[in-house]
Amino acid sequence: MTGGTTTEAVADLELRRDRRRHRRTAEPSPRRTAFRRPERTIKTTKANQSALGGRHLGIGIMLSGAVSIVFLLWRFAIQWTEYSSPALSLIAWLILLGFIAVALITVRRTALAVPPWLFPATLSIGAIVAALDLVACSLNTTDQGVYPTAAAAVGALLAAFIIVRETRDILIATGVLAAAMVGVALTKEREWMLTMAPDILITGLAVIPPLLGVFIVHNFRRMVQLELDLVLVQSTVSQPRFAVGMLASEELARLDLDAEQLLDDVAEGRIQLPLAPELSNRASSLATQLRLHLIEGRTETWLHHAVTESEFLAPAVRLNDPSGLAGLLSPEQRDALLLTIWLLVGDAARSAATVSLTLGPISPSRGVTADRRVRFPIELTTTGVPQRRVDPETWQAIRVVGPYTDSVRDGSLRVDIECSVDNPADA
């Protein structure tokens, strides 16, 4: 008996030590929240690049760029007689139109998939086209104003790659094009500075399509990722009072697979008993990690997982729920509380505001039905969220959680909710 008790005590001590070590490496800092997104969340949020309307948005940007190219080609035809030597600009347009035709045929043959080499080729062809057109404009000796058209069309061509390339690549290429066009405009001999207005207009036609496209695509991707993140986070609402989150579920699945493979190797005779020291250490590590995850599943509520595993909630929300009272909320109350936090963070995303939640302690019960209900306060405090900016749907969601009182302090909103839930002892 004494030997068994001593062994259990040593094992328990090692388990606690491993648990503390695991928490030191896994828990986020109280001031700066760190989190790792589950693999399925990462895969889902990347879907907007080829689905969920992203491809249609890219086609729309390409069509708008095509309209800009047609207008610039028409402008080139109008000023044809004003060139002292239009050969270089004509060659630039022929190269540009030929490359666009080749690119369209290539993309069509690859089932609308853009080959990796196409964007570097576009940059090279665009540099040649812009150089030829700008040189033609700078060498013009007539008194009539001649403005770059093929060079401006390169900006519309860059806009077609916004969906498939990083924003940084598009902005750098657009900046170089704008700098070249502005440089040529400034080196022209002018009798009056107001004659630069057409050059500014042409430069705007070159720069605005890719910049506007970058702005639209950036906001579209953020909107899609926000909605996908909300859908994935809402899956935690149906969890038990204490459970593991999406990240821990994936880790448990991985550990379970490793343990199953190890046991299968032993059963099939591929690994001989007794185990070698390396395999023994591996089996011990798997067992310890499994125990740690099972213990953590009994200390963290659904709200903890919803906050820490969300890309948008984790940086802005601070949760204080030492007793795990969030797990006592009904499904309707859980959904309403999560929606409240989400709406407040959605407004706070633009002003870097934060939302703090404190649940408990449990209030003393009174009355005939005191033993059937558990009451505790929920204190919701915000920084940088003025009351006038709170969406009416937020107040409706708060009413579902429980009766509340709101106040404003230093321009920020504070809401005190009196929450009432079923007594878990009656379950």
What descriptors fit this protein?
Heat Shock Protein 90, alpha+beta, 427 residues, disordered N terminus, 2 domains, 58% helix, 13 helices, five-stranded mixed beta sheet, 9% strand
Short description:
The protein is α+β, with helices and mostly antiparallel strands and 427 residues long.
Structure, described:
- The protein has two domains: 48-227; 301-427, Heat Shock Protein 90, CATH 3.30.565.
- The protein is built from 13 helices and five strands.
- It has helices at 2-26, 39-45, 54-78, 87-109, 118-138, 150-159, 167-187, 197-234, 246-267, 277-296, 302-308, 331-348, 392-401, and strands at residues 317-320, 354-359, 373-383, 404-409, 412-422.
- Helix 6 (150-159) runs antiparallel to helix 7 (167-187).
Layout of strands and helices, then pairs:
Blueprint: H1 2-26, H2 39-45, H3 54-78, H4 87-109, H5 118-138, H6 150-159, H7 167-187, H8 197-234, H9 246-267, H10 277-296, H11 302-308, E1 317-320, H12 331-348, E2 354-359, E3 373-383, H13 392-401, E4 404-409, E5 412-422
Parallel strand pairs: 1-2
Antiparallel strand pairs: 2-3, 3-5, 4-5
Helix pairs in contact: 3-6, 3-8, 4-5, 4-6, 5-6, 5-7, 6-7, 6-8, 7-8, 9-10, 12-13
